[in-house]
Every structure is written in structure tokens, then in C-alpha cells.
Amino acid sequence: MPRPVPTFHDFIGHVEVVARLRRQAEGARTRQKPFPHTLFTGTSGLGKTLLAEALATEFETDFIKIYGEIPEDELVNRLIALPSHAFLFIDEAHSLKTSEQELLFKSIDHLRVPNPNGAVTSNASHQKTEETTEIMPFTLLLATDRPGKLLNPLHKRMVLQVALSHYSIAELKEIVDRMATDMDMLVSPQAAKLIAQISGGLPRRAEHVLKNILYHFPNSEGCQLSIPQIREFMEDFGIDNKGLGPQELMYLSYLKDVGSASLESMALCLGLDCDFVHRQVEPLLLRERLVKIGPGGRKLTPIGLDWINQLNNNRKDPSTNGQNQSGQANP
Questions:
Q1: Which H or E run includes 86?
Q2: Which contiguous run of DSSP H or E holds residue 299?
Q3: Residue 281 contacts residue 270 (beta carbons within 8 Å)
């Protein structure tokens, strides 16, 4: 079945951002103007696309989504085909080539694009000029977690800057509850909170965890999943209470052994490339203040050292059965 059209009412979290966008939409509609060109930034998985779709619904206009790795001639055709006041949403905008970014900011300024057939005319002075085609007024929405890759002229034409941050556990629990309902899963409130806790502040990660739990317990539609089932899942997948998985835990263990290491050394230790380690493994470790990066390389913080020591002690003492002396769950 097609996914329901998202609205601001459906969007959980970022209350101030949503209120600001709603007010901008009302102002643009009142003046019968296109919505301002907008740049959405933030870590992958925060819901930039969903928020942009909800904005288009609020503005009552067409939403055309494309990806940054689009050929220039196809981008020209998309711009020509846009209805008036439509939203052109480009995900992974940092992947746009220089020529394509130049095409975008010129189309914003002049509402014209090069003629698709590549026609060129000559004037009386034999100077060649490229024929152009007029396009409708439109709104450009860019989404990226690497805004530094955008050309300065394009970046300056983004009137609105929307920076999304990580979600709180309370917000993520609400998202988990809604996702579980959509998946026909029965999850207790305590279990939903634990899933939110191990999702690293990211709705996309929460969705992945829920899908893995769904397949891990084939009868999950027929009974309510509670804390013991979620902890069983976490143990089977090597996930701790902070949501750290095997790669992050291996990272911490290696740093404990060597004291400090470069990104290249960490990548070799994990058997991964540097970009993946920097963009996929380290963010949660940095956010949880477990690791610090300085001139001397990567090092454990006191919090990180204490955390990995707790994990190691728990492995050596299986008699705790996931509980510490106070009766609370161990990492």
C-alpha cells in the first residue's frame, strides 16, 4: 500500500522547527509567493525527507524528490517540468557536481535553464549564445549532512537554514510506538523506551531495530514484547544499553589497549575504510562522550574508560544475569 502523505501533525519532535516552518508557509501562501529556498542539514536518519514532505503537504503544493547523483540533462528536464510553486527536493545534495550546482543557483536567479536540445545561436557579432528555456517559480529544498560540499553561491541562496538535531528518548519512544503500530507489533511501554534508548537519537535506527526484532521473534504480532525479549535481542546482536554494537565496542576496546590511535589505525583494526569509521562508527561514541578526538588522535574519555570496564566486568561475572547490585540492568 502507498505510504500516507505526511503532515506536520504526523511529525514527532522538533516542535520549534515545525512551528517556524508552518509560519513561513502561511506567510508565503498569504502573499501568493513560492516558499523560501531551504537547506535541511543534520545526520542521516533524522527525518529530513519526512519533514520536507510534511512541509509540502502543509503548503499544498507538488513535491518532487530526486537524488544528488542526477545527470545534468535530467536535472534540466526536471526543472522545466516543475509546476508553479512546486517543491524540488534534492536528497544527498552534497553529491551534486559543480556544474549542476551552478545550474541550480542560476535557475534560482533567472528562472531559466539551458535549452534541453543544446541549441546555440549566433548574433551579428558572431558571438555564440546558448538558448535557454523559461521555468516556473519554484522552491528548492536541499538535504545533506555535508553542507560544506555545497558551492558558496548555492549555499547563499538558501534563504532558510533548518538544522535537525538528535531526538530525545521521550520523542523516540513516541516514534517507536507509532512504528510498532504500523508494523502490527505489540510492544510494552517499557520495551518501547528501551528500544528508544538504544537507537542513538535517530528514528531511522529505531526503525531498523524494530524490523530486526520483528524477524527475531516470528510470533511478535501475536504477543506483547516486553523488556526480557528486547534484552534477549540485544544480547544476541551484541548491543549494549547505549546502543553500541560490535563495531563500536571493538573500537573502545582497541583504544583501551593502545591509549590513542589515528583514524587510519582504527579503520585497519575494524577492517573498514576511514570514511565509514568516521561517519558511521564514531558519531554515537562522540555523542555519548565516550571518545575524544584531538591532535594526538582518538582517545577514551574517563566516561568511555569506565563504560568499557563495566562491560568487561559484566562479561567476567555472568552470575549477575544482566543485573547490578542495585537491581538495575547492567550495560
A1: strand 86-91
A2: strand 297-300
A3: yes
What was the pLDDT predicted at 323? 47
Which pLDDT score is estimated for 255?
95
Which residues of the chain are under the pLDDT cut of 70?
A: 1-5, 118-130, 316-331
| Residue 214 backbone dihedrals phi, psi, to 5 degrees | -55, -45
Name the fold adopted by 246-320. Answer: Arc Repressor Mutant, subunit A (1.10.10)
**What is the CA angle 79-83-84, rounded to 5?**
105
**What is d(CA 47, CA 27) in angstroms, rounded to the nearest whole number?**
24
Contact 286, 279 (CB under 8 A): no
CATH for 8-163, options being 3.40.50.300, 3.40.50.720, 3.40.50.2000, 3.40.1190.20: 3.40.50.300
Q: What are phi and psi of 63, to 5 degrees?
A: -125, 115
State pTM to two decimals. Answer: 0.84
The Cα-based distances of 109 to 37, 92, 105, 136, 140 in angstroms read 12, 22, 6, 12, 12
Joined together, the cell numbers standing for residue 259 give 591509549
What kind of fold does domain 169-237 have according to CATH? Helicase, Ruva Protein; domain 3 (1.10.8)
Starting at the edge strand that comes first in sequence, how are the strands of the sheet with 260-261 ordered? 260-261, 297-300, 291-294
Whether 284 contacts 243, CB under 8 Å: yes
